[in-house]
Amino acid sequence: MRILGIDYGDARVGIAITDALNITVQGLETIQRNNSDKIVLKRLDEILDKYEVDTIVVGLPLNMDGTMSQRAEITKKFVHKLKCKYNKIKIEVVDERLTTVSAHKTMNLLEVNKHKKRNIVDTISAEYILETYLNKI
């Protein structure tokens, strides 16, 4: 069984997944939200049909002092939707502070073209979220 990582954002949602043994993490894709969770949930249905996933991990964007941000409150509502829709799958949250910063640093080190960064930053952030979770279990 695999674990799916999600970086839930206003405009885009990054998706990452583990290998079947939960050892490595790879980015899958970035979903354009278009202000609709229905688009995200429909694509998640397709991903879950393709892969055997038993856990979904969503990054929770806390403030630097550990308090809930406005974005974290919105993310919690999305997590609630996931728990209702996918009630047979374990849904977890992990602190995702600075994952986007780390993703940008990685892209800078790899000299990723600035026009491509927007399309992959959320996927890389989802990878970091998933790696954070794997390091805790």
Descriptive account of the structure:
- The protein is of the alpha/beta class.
- It has one domain: YqgF/RNase H-like domain (Nucleotidyltransferase, domain 5, 2-Layer Sandwich).
- 47% of the residues lie in helices and 26% in strands.
- The protein has four helices and five strands.
- The protein has helices at 37-50, 70-85, 99-109, 114-136; strands at residues 2-8, 12-18, 25-32, 53-60, 90-95.
- Strands 3-2-1-4-5 form a five-stranded mixed β-sheet, with helices on both faces.
- Strand 2 and strand 3 form a beta hairpin.
- Helix 3 (99-109) crosses helix 4 (114-136).
- It is globular, with a radius of gyration of 14 Å.
- The two termini are 15 Å apart.
Q: What labels would you give this structure?
A:
about 140 residues; alpha/beta; Nucleotidyltransferase, domain 5; globular
Largest sheet entry:
5 strands, mixed
- The quaternary structure here is single chain
Overall number of strands: 5
Strand proportion, as a percent range, falls in: 25-35%
Low-confidence stretches: none
CA distance, first residue to last residue = 15 Å
CATH topology, by name, is Nucleotidyltransferase, domain 5
Helix and strand sequence: EEEHEHEHH
Main sheet strand line-up: 3-2-1-4-5
* Helix fraction bin: 40-55%
Q: How many structural domains in the coordinates?
A: 1
